[in-house]
Amino acid sequence: LLQLAALPCLAWVAWQHLNQYTAAWPWPWKALAITLLAIPLLQLIPLPDSLAAMGEARTLLHTDLATFGAPAATQATLDAHATRGALHLLLPALAVFGLTAALPFAQRRQLAWAIIGLAMASLLLGILQLGAPQESALNPYPQWRPAMNGFFANPNHQATLLVLAGVLAAGWLATGMVRPERRQGSRIPGLVAAAAVLVLAMGALPLTGSRAGVILFVIAVTATVAAHASLLQRARPRRALLAASAGVAGLGVFAAMRWMQVEAVRELRGPMREATLEVAGAHAPLGSGMGSFVPVFEQATAHQLLMPNYVNHAHNEYAQWLLEAGWLALPAMALGAWALISAGRALLRLPPPARSA
Fold it and tell me: Which of 121, 189, 225, 255 has fewest C-beta within 10 Å?
C-alpha cells in the first residue's frame, strides 16, 4: 500500500518541480535520487553473455548452468523478483523526501515536532514492553524476550529515532537559549518541552542497548549546540561554547565507548561484515542484484554464520551495497557523501538567523 501510495505523491512532486512551484533540489540530491533508482533498473536489463559472466561467482554459476543444460543468466541480478521489490521499496522513501522538501518552513517545523511526538510515543510503548510478559500483546515478537523496541522490531532502530528527536529538541533549545528574543511569550512551553525531550532521550538511550546510538547522540547533540555559537554576539562566549561542545563530545564518546565496553565485545557484526565483503568480491563487478542478499549470503557464507533464523541483512550498509550493487555502489556512496557535504556548506552560507531556524 505504501509503495502504491508513493506513486501519486512522486507525480505531484515532479509536477511541482516542472512548474517551479517549489524550490528545485540541489543537483547532488537529484543525482543521488536518480542513481538509487537507476541501479536496480540497470540490473534488470538483459546483458550480453560476455558481460553477464563477469566475476568469479558468475563464471562458476554459468559453468554449473551449462553442465545441467539450463539457460545462462542474462541479467546483472541473480534474483529479478527481489530486485524489482527493492526498486519498489525505494519509492516511499523518495516520496517522503520530496514531500518534506516541498513543505514551507512553518509546516517543516510542525513536522519536526510530529517526529518528536512519535519518538516519545515509541519510547512510552518501549517502557511498557519492558514490564510486560514475553507472551503479552505488547510484545509483537513473542519468540524474543521483551525489549525497549517501541514501534520497531530492533532496539537499534528505536535508538535511531531517539537520536533524531534529541537533535531536533537540542536545536530548538539551543536557539532559544542563545537568542533571548526567542524566549518571549509562547516559546517558553516549547523550550520546556524540548528540554524534557532531550532529558528523556538521553536517559532512555542506554536502556535500548544500542552502543552506536549513545555515541551518535553525544556527537550529534553537541554538534547541534556548537552550530548555534555564531548566534552569540561576543567572541569570548562563542569560543567558550565551541570549546565546551568539543570537550563534551570527546569526553562523552570516550565514556560511552568505555561504559559500553566496545573494545571488549566480540559480536557477530564483525564476522558478518568480513563475510559479506568476501562474497561481494566474488560477485564484483556486477553485484548479485538489489534485494538478493539473503539467498546469496546463505549460499556462499561459512557454516559458522548460519543460524536457526535467517540473516536478513549484513548489518553494514556499505558492505551490503557492495555485494548487491557491485561497482555501481561506489558512485552511489560518493554521491550520498557529496549531497550531505553540499547541504552542510549551503547551511553555513546562510546568515545565522536563517541557519538556526
Answer: 189
Maximum C-alpha span of the chain? 79
Query: What residues contact 132, with CB distance under 8 A and at least 6 apart?
Result: 138, 139, 146
Torsion-angle region of residue 55: left (phi > 0), alpha (psi -120 to 50) or beta? left
pTM, to two decimals: 0.80
What SS3 string covers 224-249? HHHHHHHHCCCHHHHHHHHHHHHHHH
The pLDDT tens digits along the chain (357 residues) read: 999 999 999 999 989 888 888 878 888 999 999 999 999 999 999 988 888 888 888 888 888 888 998 888 888 899 999 999 999 999 999 999 999 988 888 888 899 999 999 999 999 999 998 888 888 888 877 777 888 888 988 888 999 999 999 999 888 887 776 655 554 555 677 788 888 998 899 889 888 888 888 888 888 888 887 777 666 655 556 666 666 666 666 666 666 665 555 544 456 777 888 889 999 999 989 999 999 999 898 888 766 666 666 778 888 899 999 999 999 999 999 999 999 899 888 877 776 556 555
In whole angstroms, what is the distance from residue 177 CA to residue 114 CA? 22
Is 218 in contact with 257 (CB distance < 8 Å)? Answer: no
Distance between CA atoms of residues 91 and 13, nearest Å:
12
